[in-house]
Amino acid sequence: MYILFTVLAGLALLAFTFVKTFFPYFGDDCSYILRSLRLGMRLIRYKKIKPFYSILDCFLDAARRHPAKTFVHFEGQQFSYGEVDKQSNRVARALQAAAQLKEGNTAALFLPNEPAFIWTWLALAKLGCTAALLNFNIRSKSLLHCFSCCGAKVIITSTELLDAVEEVLPVLREQGIRVFLLSDSCSIQGIESLSEQVSQASDQPLSWDLRANVSIRSTALYIYTSGTTGLPKAAVVTHERVWAASFLQAACEVTADDIFYINLPLYHSAGFLIGMAGAIERGMTIVLRRKFSASQFWDDCRKHNVTVMQYIGETMRYLCNMPKKDNEKDHKVKLAIGNGVRKDIWTEFLNRFGDIKVRELYAATEGNIGFINYTSKIGTVGRENILQKMFFPHALIKFDIDTEEPVRNSEGLCIEAARGETGLLVGKITQRSPFIGYAGNKQQTEKKRLRDVFKKGDLYFNTGDLLRIDEDNFVYFQDRVGDTFRWKGENVATSEVADILMMAHCILEANVYGVKVEGHEGRIGMAAVTLREGEEFDCSDVYKQVVNYLPSYARPRFIRCQPCLEMTGTFKMKKVKLVEDGFKPTHIKDPLYFLDTQKKTYVPLTEEICEEIASRKINL
Fold it and tell me: Beta strand pairing status for 70-74 and 219-225?
């Protein structure tokens, strides 16, 4: 018996050594697959359960289980689950009385990062309403567009965004839109203050009957995303999608005892779905910031004992650019969840701030395929596994950068990219992995659908992203295609920027694109423009247009004046060569201009300015 036991132990050790040597990520794969299966079973149960169990019901259960537990820390204040529940009841009753909101209506939230955002959204959910989450940076034309495309008849805002609302108020009033301000009073005609009604309303629970017809397939949210062309699009987010996104924290092994730090905007899917909804699903505490601050980041983490942080690539770069301190590893952060971090910044972040597990993600608000780097391998956005291939079919297909179209064979079908080759990621549209599309925009919804991919009649979601999957099944993000680039963690639609540039009297045509700047994440805005006959480039007028109508991250920092813009055979503006040229005057003979935020105008771009950008004397 002893000999048999010794032999078995030796075989087990040998097997373990073999697996560890030749399949080093086998344990990680198994652990992640088991977690995913458990979460998948929960989602299936939620689909079948009657009455429908939503993320709101999950919050209500948490409020009943531990009403005194802190839900939100914000600027020195803390709000328990019970307090947030009662405040949302008051807001719901006030909106029900003042705005006559009822099940099936849509209301737009135009609010900054603050607790009122959370309890106002909960209030809308308790009334069975859909919430449209408006980007608080947008103004004028973009604001009106985002509001109108979701079919909302009510907009809820705060005093700090009053100027932006007042600018478009005449149009809102013409359309019969009601504007409610979370304030005690408002002297502007057409804007109704709501705070007094909220304070006088009952905090007792609302009847479930108010949302009796809401199902897992009902629209819970509209989250805005910049697509390949045009103004921001309202991605339809169902209650099923809210659940799926909220599970991401659980997939990363976050527990109810963790404390989650949210410094990303709540109007984004990252801050709202992964951050806030994920915290509700876990029943945990969140620390909410109005906006990201590199100088206060680690002090906040230490003060509130934060264990899980959220990031975009810029977050980590800003933290790594801060002056070094002796206590940089003195914190309890053990996990970072986010996307967009460069390999070199990732390495520097770990070296400076300690052994933090980084869970880099790849996903899109409206997409039907995503990846999680559950192994902590630096530089990858995820890892393919057998479960994902089975339940969420996807592929990388060959893509022509110049024509911006998939490469097709003689039969008109797409060609799968070889292992290790960069290709366009597409996800098969099925009942399990649907693509709902965009509210009020059938054309853009259809553009994201790719037909006849591997056989006639099949249907895939076009992510618009180029990825690479290596021999070990690790996934690497390569680039974004089409007419969108990403800067400061925000997607920028090039045609929207071009429309604004052409409002300047001197500009006839504009071709907008993103260019890389050494040491920075993403691509910064640049435009090639042609001038009207007899006109010179008007620095101050162009500056005025972009500042008045575009958020800071979308303003083109570089402008190139050309005699004509190069077109394709189908009259699409060519960008590839422009992107390759970059912005340095040593490589370009055309006149170049730089948006100088200090002088508040565009100035001729010189080699000296380029050197100051490279040395970080000029902050982009």
Answer: unpaired
